């Protein structure tokens, strides 16, 4: 049996899975935590990887490996390859004003969408390098190379024996890579940073880019969303919804999107196709926060939500507890609307919170339909997707069949699948662990339409105040 390893270097932790290269079956796992915050030293990711793989048995017999990492983060290196400053992560909003300035500087959102398929927001690397150039000129002067989080960990796992590399999937989230032409837009780097930077080579997804000191072949890796779709093996005309720290809606497409509204990011996937994607800042932590406010466990929170009627009797929870990326409302806060003496109950609060988080992604799916492809079903994954209430309410909010999965490290497994591709020369036919299908119940379609109208109105009013 050939073994491959996949690494998920996410916002909160590093997870390592070792898989059978033929079937994708997970045979061993390791895990370690990352530090909290939106600004952390990239060296912490290597430390966590070393802790996760400290047991020599974990990687024994592994022939190839790859890293799936959180997208967009800015890792800055000087000419000697040393870190200039701590990495700014995707969820660091200090670059929000820089994103707005860049849109204006180029001449508007349509020109950005035409150039790279996406309109800058605070999350994108291009906004972060503009922030660095304007706010930390001394550090900016020392920067020789900018790479992404997964690029950094791949390079370190390889013992720095090769120059940093990336892939077109993760590169497409920088805001300065054209995924249709498969090339960097150096003019956009100069616009943002004021000068050129050394950027990582974009490797083919099935390429062996180097070896670890232990002799394990290393594939280029990719961004976490791209790795997740590899690991989930998403069927055609099915949108993948991931509910973790953030919320993500995406689907595979043969064409790149160019959405000037900025709702859909025109990303590439990890196979040579495209991955139009909608990302929100606010995912599972909204549910955790409301459960804490109600002084109940997450299991009791789920049970409470299931006792409320669809639509929460008109109670609306806008899930902008950490600002928001889509729509671009970095300074927004969460809001509770439509509260009355009759509907202000713990059950309605629980359900409204779940409905609010899911609605933001259902709105994204509606835009994906317009921009990319018909959507006939939803595949639901991520930590919050294990909640029975989230699964059942998703069918009501999306108005589509929902394919639920068992707990599954889709990013790490997707990275392992890429490693198997590099090892064998062909992308293996692995399958996703779909455990149940939830269908919308009679009457929920009408509730979904009413819910959509309420949330669109509320979100538009928040945007008008911004």
Structure description:
The protein is α/β, with parallel strands linked by helices. The protein has a domain at 3-225: Nucleotidyltransferase, domain 5, CATH 3.30.420.40. Helices cover 36% and strands 21% of the residues. The protein has 15 helices and 24 strands. The chain has helices at 43-52, 96-106, 109-116, 125-135, 137-142, 149-157, 168-171, 186-193, 224-232, 284-293, 298-307, 346-371, 388-398, 410-424, 444-465; strands spanning 3-9, 13-20, 26-33, 39-40, 62-69, 75-77, 87-88, 145-147, 165-167, 177-178, 183-184, 201-203, 210-211, 217-218, 222-223, 238-243, 247-250, 265-268, 274-280, 316-318, 335-337, 377-381, 402-405, 434-438. The strands form seven sheets. Strands 1, 2, 3, 5, 13, 14 and 15 form a seven-stranded mixed beta sheet that branches. A seven-stranded mixed beta sheet has the order 18-19-17-16-22-23-24, sandwiched between helices. β18 and β19 (274-280) form a beta hairpin.
Instruction: Please mark out the parts with pLDDT under 50 across 5 or more consecutive residues, or reply none.
Output: none
Helix content: 25-40%
**Full CATH superfamily name of the domain at 3-225:** ATPase, nucleotide binding domain
Number of strands: 24
Average the pLDDT over all residues and give the rounded result: 94
Overall geometry: globular
- The CATH topology of the domain at 3-225 turns out to be Nucleotidyltransferase, domain 5
Q: In what range is the share of β-strand residues?
A: 15-25%
């Amino acid at each position: 049996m050939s073994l491959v390893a996949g690494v998920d270097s996410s916002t909160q932790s590093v997870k390592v899975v070792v898989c059978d290269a033929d079937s994708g079956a997970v045979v061993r796992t390791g895990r370690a935590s990352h530090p909290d915050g939106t600004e952390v030293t990239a060296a912490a990711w290597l430390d966590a990887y070393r802790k996760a793989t400290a047991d020599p048995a974990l990687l024994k017999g592994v022939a190839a490996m790859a890293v799936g990492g959180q997208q967009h983060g800015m890792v800055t290196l000087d000419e000697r390859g040393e870190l200039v400053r701590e990495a700014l992560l995707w969820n660091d909003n200090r670059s929000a004003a820089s994103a707005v300035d860049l849109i204006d500087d180029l001449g508007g959102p349509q020109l950005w969408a035409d150039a790279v398929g996406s309109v800058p927001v605070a999350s994108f690397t291009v906004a972060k390098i503009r922030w660095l150039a304007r706010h930390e000129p001394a550090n900016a002067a020392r920067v020789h190379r900018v790479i992404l989080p997964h690029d950094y960990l791949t390079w370190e796992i390889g013992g720095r024996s090769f120059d940093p590399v990336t892939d077109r999937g993760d590169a497409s989230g920088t805001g300065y890579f054209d995924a249709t032409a498969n090339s960097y837009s150096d003019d956009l780097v100069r616009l943002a940073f004021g000068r050129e930077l050394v950027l990582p080579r974009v490797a083919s997804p099935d390429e062996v880019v180097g070896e670890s000191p232990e002799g394990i072949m290393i594939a280029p890796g990719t961004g976490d969303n791209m790795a997740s779709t590899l690991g989930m093996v998403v069927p055609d005309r099915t949108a993948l919804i991931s509910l973790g720290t953030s919320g993500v809606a995406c689907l595979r497409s043969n064409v790149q999107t160019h959405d000037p509204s900025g709702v859909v990011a025109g990303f590439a996937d990890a196979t040579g196709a495209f991955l139009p994607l909608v990302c929100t800042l606010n995912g599972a932590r909204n549910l955790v926060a409301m459960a804490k406010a109600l002084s109940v466990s997450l299991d009791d929170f789920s049970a409470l939500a299931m006792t409320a009627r669809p639509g929460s009797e008109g109670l609306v929870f806008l899930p902008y507890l950490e600002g928001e990326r889509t729509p671009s409302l970095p300074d927004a806060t969460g809001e509770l609307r439509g509260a009355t003496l009759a509907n202000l109950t713990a059950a309605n609060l629980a359900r409204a919170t779940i409905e609010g988080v899911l609605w933001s992604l259902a709105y994204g799916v509606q835009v994906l339909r317009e921009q990319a492809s018909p959507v006939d079903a939803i595949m639901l994954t991520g930590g919050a997707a294990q909640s029975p209430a989230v699964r059942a309410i998703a069918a009501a909010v999306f108005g589509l069949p929902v394919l639920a999965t068992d707990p599954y490290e889709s990013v790490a497994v997707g990275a392992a699948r890429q490693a198997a591709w590099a090892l064998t020369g062909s992308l293996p036919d692995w399958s996703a662990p779909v455990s149940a299908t939830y269908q919308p119940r009679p009457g929920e379609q009408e509730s979904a339409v009413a819910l959509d109208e309420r949330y669109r109105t509320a979100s538009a009013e928040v945007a008008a105040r911004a």
